[in-house]
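Input record (one chain):
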Amino acid sequence: MKRISALIVLLVAGCTALSAQPRALGGRIGMTGFDVSYLHTVGKKNFIETDLSLDFGYAGSGAPGFKATGIYNFVVARPAWTDKGSWALYTGPGLSLGYVQDKVVYKSGNLRYHPNDYGFMLSLAVQAGLEYTFWFPLQIAVDLRPQFGMHINDGISRRIDNYTDRIDYKGKAGYYNNGWFGFVPTVSVRYRF
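The corresponding structure, as predicted from the sequence alone:
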């Protein structure tokens, strides 16, 4: 009975400590997609960011896909640029996975095909950004999040020569090309609570 009581006390204390940490919920939009974004402060200044994304497809082609990303951000500086509110410079590593469209390269003799195809992606993400938290519960941020990883598609069927010939491509694992668009700045707006 003492162990059960101790376990219940530890769980309640842990939940209370987690709920006391500042959090933020909002949206993040950029060239690669729209994210529902959640931040949870860890310790005194670092935070975990988790995003569920509607991916816009390779180079913004409009073919939707889905991603989930988790980033552990280290706050490296808190400049005092304004009297009200607070600034933070942050950076951190993370992981992203999803089902998205990306460019796939196939070679057939001297010919190269570059079709866009859906597939599973897994990548390492690196984020660096600047955020401003107002004196009321609103936070805005600008960040860069390139991703380096792989894209695995399940194969493509394509017709050529006036739709008479058919070329079937097998599934292929390749580089996740769309991850480079993370170098384009992304804007976030979140409600802080």
